[in-house]
Amino acid sequence: SMQCVPGLVLALSSLLGALALLQLSLHLRVPSRYGKHEERLCRPRGRLPARCAWFLQELPSFLVPALLLALRSPPRLEPLGCRLLCCLFCWHYFYRTFIYPFFTRGRPFPLQLLFFGMLFCIYNGFLQGYYLIYCAEYPNDWCTDIRFTSGLLLFLLGMGINIHSDLLLRQLRKPGEVTYKIPQGGLFTYVSGANYFGEIVEWFGFAIATWSLPAFAFAFFTLCCIGPRAYHHHRYYLKTFTDYPKSRKALIPFVF
């Protein structure tokens, strides 16, 4: 039976923090080359349809914690706070794996980025699942703790923003269309990266609710990974559309 090794949790969390800083340094000035930032001369080989790619990339983040839970003997059912936190993580990735991909209308996805995305989802799925299922210790009244309740509210708010923003983006395109248009409605009224803002809020809420190093490392990684992408999206819109609202910020309403 697998046992908790605190040193492993610390090492994996620290590495995740280092990977976050690496992501930030690589993409602060140059965006990842896919979607609207793809080089026009880039040949469309080595790609998968967006729906298939998203499904394969996100699947490990759902399967790995589920497998860790299945392998634990006896199964961990207490305390309630621990069970709920694990469910929140799996809930997000159930949506991202089994619902989101079948509605997306994105362009074909590069296999190289898919490979690294899958590796990350395996890594992070193991770290978060391993910590919550084998290492986390919460008091029986954790569900009433201000950290849990405020974090849960942030998580639900962020997930709601993320899902609603994805819906608005999908509605911009008719089936078969690949052109980019100005997002309208919802939080897009204030920021160019409303979907990214929602996901960042979601994972910082999760980090507060778990009050753990692995979750804060993941939230920091999310910020460093998709924060710059929101900034590059913002610049793209400003450069491409002359009528793009000048009052919009890149990521954080009224600030940035």
From TrEMBL:
What this protein catalyses is: a 3-oxo-5alpha-steroid + NADP(+) = a 3-oxo-Delta(4)-steroid + NADPH + H(+); 17beta-hydroxy-5alpha-androstan-3-one + NADP(+) = testosterone + NADPH + H(+); 5alpha-pregnane-3,20-dione + NADP(+) = progesterone + NADPH + H(+)
User: What topology in the membrane does the UniProt record assign?
Assistant: Multi-pass membrane protein
Report the Pfam families cross-referenced here: Steroid_dh
Which UniProt keyword terms apply here? Differentiation, Endoplasmic reticulum, Lipid metabolism, Membrane, Microsome, NADP, Oxidoreductase, Sexual differentiation, Transmembrane, Transmembrane helix
Q: Which GO terms describe its molecular function?
A: 3-oxo-5-alpha-steroid 4-dehydrogenase (NADP+) activity
Q: Which InterPro entries match?
A: 3-oxo-5-alpha-steroid_4-DH (IPR016636), 3-oxo-5_a-steroid_4-DH_C (IPR001104), SRD5A/TECR (IPR039357)
Instruction: Name the Gene3D superfamilies for this protein.
Output: 1.20.120.1630
* Role: Converts testosterone (T) into 5-alpha-dihydrotestosterone (DHT) and progesterone or corticosterone into their corresponding 5-alpha-3-oxosteroids. It plays a central role in sexual differentiation and androgen physiology.
Output the superkingdom of the source species: Eukaryota
Compartments, record wording: Endoplasmic reticulum membrane; Microsome membrane
Which residues are in the 3-oxo-5-alpha-steroid 4-dehydrogenase C-terminal domain?
108-256
Q: What broad class of enzyme is this? A: oxidoreductase
Cellular component annotations (GO), alphabetically ordered: endoplasmic reticulum membrane
Q: Which residues cross the membrane?
A: 109-134, 146-165, 203-226
In Swiss-Prot or TrEMBL terms, this protein is called 3-oxo-5-alpha-steroid 4-dehydrogenase 2
Q: Does the keyword Oxidoreductase apply?
A: yes
The entry assigns this protein to a family as follows: Belongs to the steroid 5-alpha reductase family.
* GO annotation (BP), single: androgen biosynthetic process
EC number of this enzyme = 1.3.1.22
